[in-house]
C-alpha cells in the first residue's frame, strides 16, 4: 500500500508560502509564475478549474494546456461540465481517452487502486507533455488533500507532478473563497470523485457496475439532490446524502426505490450517517 507519508506532508507545509489570513489569489499566481509552461490535469472540479484559470492569468493562454482523461470512471455529466467550464474560461482543453479498465490490477480494486490509476494517468500526461514541449505537469492537489487517504499522491510524486495550490498554502476552503471572490461560477460545485470510489475494496470494478452507479446518481441529481453518493454492495444501493436532505429523500423513497430497481438494484437503503467523503475507506 502506498500512502502520502508524514514526511511528505511536512515537506509540503515547509514549501508553502507564508500567509497571515488564508491563501490569496496573488500568492497562487506568484507560485505559478515560477513555471514557464504548464500541462494541467483537468477535471472541471473547483480545484483544477481555479488552478487553470489562475495559470492563464499568470502565464498567458499560450503557455497553459488542460488535459481531461476520459474513462467510464467519470460520469458523463461531469465531462460535459468540464467542457463547459473550459469554454467559459477560454481554457485550451484536450479530452483524451483513458483505458484504465483494461488494467487488471486496477479492476481488482485493492486499497491502493488510486495509486494504480494515477500512475497510469500521469504517464499518459507525460506523453502529451513531451508532444507539446511542456516540462511541467500540475494538478489541483491542495493542503487539505495531504491529510487525507490519497494513495495517488505517491504516484504523482514518482512521476514528477507539481502541486501549485498546495505549495501556495491553499486549503479547500481557500480555493472556494478565491473562486467566489473572482466571480467564477463553479465556486460552490460539489466535490466529485471517480465512480470506483462507490465500490467496496476487493470487489471488481466493471463497466456494468459503474454504469449502474452513474444511472442511480443521475436519478438523484435529476430530482434536485447534489453532493450525493450511491455506494454499491452487490445488489444493494447505499445512498449517502447530506443530513439536511434526508427528509426530502425519505418523502420520495417509493419513487427512488422504483427507479433504482429499474436500474438493477434489489435493495435500496439510506445511510443514516449522511454523506461523507471517502466513506469506503472507513473499512480499512
Mean pLDDT metric: 91
DSSP E strands, number: 7
Radius of gyration: 19 Å
Strand order of the largest sheet: 3-2-1-4
Largest sheet: 4 strands, parallel
Q: What characteristic shape results from the CA principal axes?
A: globular
Task: Give structural notes.
With 284 residues, the chain is an alpha/beta fold. Helices cover 44% and strands 12% of the residues. The chain contains 12 helices and 7 strands. The strands form 2 sheets. Strands 3-2-1-4 form a 4-stranded parallel sheet, sandwiched between helices. Strands 5-6-7 form a 3-stranded mixed sheet, with helices on one face. α2 packs across α3, α6 (113-132) runs parallel beside α7 (152-158) and α10 packs antiparallel against α12. The longest helix has 20 residues, at 113-132. The radius of gyration is 19 Å and the shape is globular.
List keywords for this structure.
284 residues, 3-stranded mixed sheet, 12 helices, 44% helix
Secondary-structure topology with pairs:
Blueprint: H1 6-15, H2 25-32, E1 38-41, H3 46-59, E2 64-70, H4 76-89, E3 93-97, H5 104-108, H6 113-132, E4 136-138, H7 152-158, H8 164-167, H9 172-181, H10 207-222, E5 229-233, E6 236-240, H11 246-251, H12 253-263, E7 267-270
Parallel strand pairs: 1-2, 1-4, 2-3, 6-7
Antiparallel strand pairs: 5-6
Helix pairs in contact: 2-3, 6-7, 10-12
Amino acid at each position: 500500500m502506498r500512502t502520502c507519508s508524514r514526511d511528505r506532508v511536512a515537506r509540503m507545509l515547509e514549501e508553502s508560502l507564508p500567509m497571515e489570513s488564508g491563501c490569496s489569489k496573488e500568492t497562487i499566481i506568484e507560485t505559478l509564475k515560477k513555471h514557464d509552461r504548464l500541462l494541467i490535469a483537468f477535471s472541471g472540479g473547483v480545484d483544477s478549474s481555479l488552478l487553470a484559470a489562475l495559470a492563464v492569468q499568470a502565464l498567458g493562454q499560450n503557455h497553459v494546456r488542460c488535459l481531461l482523461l476520459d474513462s467510464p470512471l467519470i460520469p458523463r455529466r461531469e465531462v460535459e461540465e468540464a467542457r463547459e467550464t473550459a469554454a467559459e474560461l477560454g481554457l485550451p482543453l484536450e479530452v483524451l481517452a483513458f483505458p484504465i479498465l483494461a488494467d487488471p490490477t486496477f479492476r481488482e480494486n485493492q486499497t491502493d487502486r488510486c495509486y494504480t490509476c494515477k500512475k497510469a494517468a500521469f504517464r499518459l500526461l507525460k506523453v502529451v507533455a513531451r508532444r507539446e514541449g511542456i516540462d511541467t505537469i500540475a494538478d489541483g492537489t491542495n493542503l487539505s488533500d495531504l491529510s487525507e487517504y490519497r494513495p495517488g499522491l505517491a504516484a504523482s510524486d514518482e512521476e514528477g507532478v507539481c502541486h501549485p495550490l498546495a505549495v501556495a498554502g491553499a486549503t479547500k476552503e481557500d480555493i472556494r473563497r478565491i473562486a467566489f471572490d473572482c466571480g467564477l461560477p463553479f465556486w460552490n460545485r460539489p466535490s466529485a470523485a471517480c465512480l470506483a470510489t462507490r465500490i467496496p475494496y476487493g470487489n471488481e470494478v466493471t463497466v456494468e457496475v459503474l454504469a449502474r452507479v452513474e444511472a442511480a446518481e443521475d436519478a438523484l441529481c435529476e430530482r434536485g439532490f447534489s453532493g450525493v453518493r450511491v455506494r454499491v454492495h452487490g445488489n444493494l444501493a447505499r445512498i449517502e446524502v447530506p443530513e439536511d436532505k434526508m427528509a426530502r429523500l425519505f418523502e420520495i423513497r417509493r419513487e427512488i426505490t422504483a427507479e433504482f430497481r429499474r436500474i438493477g438494484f434489489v435493495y435500496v437503503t439510506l445511510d443514516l450517517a449522511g454523506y461523507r467523503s471517502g466513506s469506503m475507506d472507513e473499512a480499512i
